Amino acid sequence: VGERLGLAPTDVQHMQWLIANQHTMYFWATRRDISDPSLIAEIAREVGTAHGLRDLYLFTFCRVETIAPGAMSAWNARMLDELWRAVSASLEGSEPDVTEQLVRIRHELVAGIADPERRASMAAFVEHAGERYLLSNSLEAMRFHSDVVARRRNGLAFGATDQDTAPGTLEIVIGCDDRPGLLADLTAALAAGRFSVDSAQVYTRKVQGGPDEAFDIFHVTHPNVGADHLMQPELERLRENILRLLGGQERASE
Question: How are beta strands 196-205 and 157-161 bridged, if at all?
Answer without folding.
Answer: unpaired
